[in-house]
Structures are given as structure tokens and as C-alpha cells.
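Format notes (please read before filing issues)

Several people have asked whether sequences and C-alpha cells are stored in separate files. They are not. Every record keeps both together, in the order shown below: the sequence lines, then the C-alpha cell lines. Line labels are part of the format and must not be stripped during preprocessing.
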Amino acid sequence: MEAILERFPFAYYHIAMRYLGAAGLAFLVFYVIFRKRMPLRKIQERFPKARDYMRDAGYSLMTVAIFAVISIWSFKVLQPYHLLFDSFEDMPAWYWPLTVIPMFFIHDFYFYWAHRLMHHPRLFKRVHKIHHLSTNPSPWTAYAFHPFEAVIEALIITILCFTVPTHAGIIVLFMIFQIFYNVYGHLGYELYPKGFNRTWIGRYVNTSVAHNQHHHKFQGNYGLYTLIWDRVFGTLRADYDESYDQAASRRVLAKKLS
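Then the structure lines:
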């Protein structure tokens, strides 16, 4: 406990700055500066209300605190037991980027099943409903979790420490990537081009449209980075491609009119 209390302010500050940087920048660009001039159309044309932004930002700051505690616990308290290397010099330089590959798929698989679990009626009503108060998500929705769900989400750090022989710094970089992709998923705008969802790789990439559908309609599209598990386990919404095509077509039309 002493180690957690000692390191908490430092950990909270750094995680908060990463989150505020990613979510804040996306919000500033898409929801403030270019709100009426952005050549990309919103997936849902209406915008959330100010109270939605404030609620999501408040829950997000609590989530950051939980991520800070779990990070310290995983990296410092459990240090004698996990698989992490102490120094980058312990392995050749080419090794470290390769460790991101298992991290990516472990997190994607973990998130899919944790997310589906959160949609169990009892857990949804008591826990996951907080996240789904935003049926029209914004960048601030990315970390807007009930504290219990925030713990479940943050435990991926612990899992990675015990499953991937890497360096703590690589996990930190991976979690920064996670923040940015999470913000994109809740952005409310689709950034991938028209037809991307029907390409051989685009069929398996999770998009902002896919996750926006999940928030708007509550069922299906449970993935984080990919749609692999949604396709394997039959939870990809049947109307996903149609919704993506509509959003992408509006984007193309907006560019032609600009």
C-alpha cells in the first residue's frame, strides 16, 4: 500500500495527461473548432449535450485513478512475480516491437469477452449502463466507466505483465496506443475511407461506425481493435456494412460539396 500511495500522484498525472491529450485534442478539433466546417459528417448527425460531456469526463477521471492504482500494483508490487525484463539491454532491439503483437491480440480477446460479460442483464443494469448513458458517444466517453468496470478494463495491464515477456515501457506505449484507438472508437466520426469495411483487412478492423452502433443500439459489435471475435462468434451486427457505407457516403458527399 505504501508503494501505491507514494507513486499514485506521479502515475495519475501521466495517465491523465495522456488521456486528456488524446480525448481533449479530438474534442477540440471535431466538436469545437471544426464543428460546423468539418468536411467529415458525424455518424449520428446530432451532437451530445453539455451535461453528457461533463458526466463522461467525470467518470473518465475516476477511471484514470483506477488505471493508476492497477499500473503501480502490476509494475511495482507484483514485480518479483511477473515476466517483465528489468532493462532494454536484456534483449536485442528487434525483440521489443515484436512483443506488441501478442499484447494486441491478448487485449483484443480479453476486451471482447469482458465487454460481452458486461452486457449480462445484472451487470449491465448495475455497472455497464454508466458507459451506455452516452448513446451518442464523444471522445470523453472513451474512459467513462463505472469503477467496477474500470477495474476490469485496467486488469489487462496485470494480465500482460504475466503473459508477455516484455518491458514495462513497452506496455506503457501500448496503453497509449489503446487510449488513442479508444478515443477514435468513440469519436462519433468515421475516419476510414469509403469501401474500407469491404476490403480483406477492413473486414476485421473495428471502426468508429461499428462502436457507435453498439452505443446507439446496445447489442453486437463488442470488439476493441478488431472485428475478428465478433465475426467468429456471430455478434457482428447484420446492419454494420450498411451503416458504414452510409456514413462513408455522407463523408464523400460532404467533400464534393466543400
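For reference, the curators noted about this record: The chain has ten helices and no strands. Residues 132 and 257 are 34 Å apart (CA to CA).
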